[in-house]
Amino acid sequence: MNRPLRYGSVCSGIEAASVAWEPLGWTPAWFCEIDPFASALLAHRFPGVPNHGDFTQLLDPAHAVHADPIDVLVGGTPCQDFSVAGLRAGVEGDRGSLTLDFCRLVGVLRPRWVVWENVPGVLSSDGGRALGAFLGALAELGYGFAYRVLDAQYFG
Question: C-alpha distances in angstroms, 127 versus 89, 112, 133?
Fold first, then answer.
């Protein structure tokens, strides 16, 4: 591939992926963020990059973003339903279920690569079934996978 990778970001927050990937020459095609503060920050830092808001709206195949293909889909769906500090509702929780919506979006967009970020609690949530459901959905879509827990305190 001779061109820089283009990515779409869901649950973008203040867009840590863009900070990490900018030195690589990767470029954001679009964001999906609903939080007003994070959305304002994204508009300020990336004025030419559209923010499509609620990423579940992209599950409609007629949505215009599908005409703009991406190489990578990145997202950190809400962690509260997986976190050991939360209620541990897993994929059945309102926020945890967004993990499965993320997988459905992978199926609609069909990026070459998928990067999903969450908390270590996803490994034990629902007795490990939460991560199993996520990985199983990727496998059903034809994606291979690898995962790893990285402790942010060791990465600057």
Answer: 11, 30, 11
Choose the most confident range, by mean pLDDT, from 6-10, 88-92, 132-136.
6-10
Rg (CA), the chain: 15
pLDDT tens digits for 3-44? 889 999 999 999 989 999 999 999 999 999 999 999 999 999
- No. of H helices and E strands in the chain? 4, 4
The model carries a pTM of 0.89
What token pair was written down for 16? 């840590």
Active site residues: 79
Write the DSSP assignment of 12-73 as a string of letters: -TT-HHHHHHGGGT-EEEEEE---HHHHHHHHHH-TTS-B-S-GGGGGSTTSGGGGS--SEE
For residues 45 and 87, is the Cβ–Cβ distance under 8 A? no
